[in-house]
Specification:
globular, alpha/beta, Rossmann fold, five-stranded parallel β-sheet, 6 helices, disordered C terminus
Length: 145
């Protein structure tokens, strides 16, 4: 459990991301890779868990698998961006076409990324979204060049 005092002691130059995926191994790989790139990662396995974490850790960015258990990533995104309109959310979906992109905008996502591109496709999308949102941090986090 993360305490508020621990969060307040986190260096400001390390942006926070809540990363939600239903598979524990994928989450562990994402946590490792994003951590290596300067992010402080808070993993979640369901929509309700994401919303609780977002309220507690105040991340700059959220990455959601579209097909989360208990509550879809689409619905979670809509709830999060209604509560916090400036929160950047990247949705990771099985397919990405014009419908998914339109629906992503409708629910407040900053970007929708195709899952089959794997973590290698998600990383640049997140970093691009971070840069577009002015989120800066460690050597590879959202730095504009």
């Amino acid at each position: 459990m993360i305490s508020t005092s621990e969060l307040d002691q986190t260096p400001v130059d390390r942006p926070r991301v809540v990363f939600a995926h239903s598979e524990a191994r994928y989450l562990a790989r994402a946590e490792e890779e994003f951590g290596r790139r300067g992010w402080e990662v808070f993993p979640a396995g369901s929509g309700p868990q994401v919303r609780r974490l977002v309220r507690r850790v105040r991340p700059q960015l959220v990455v959601l698998e579209a097909e989360l258990p208990e509550e879809s990533g689409w619905l979670t995104c809509a709830k999060l961006t209604r509560e916090q309109p400036k929160l950047a959310v990247v949705l990771v979906s099985g397919l990405v076409g014009s419908w998914e992109e339109s629906f992503g905008r409708f629910v407040g996502a900053a970007r929708v990324v195709e899952r089959r591109r794997g973590l290698a496709g998600v990383l640049p999308a997140v970093e691009g979204t971070a840069a577009g949102e002015g989120i800066t941090g460690g050597p590879e986090v959202g730095q504009q060049g």
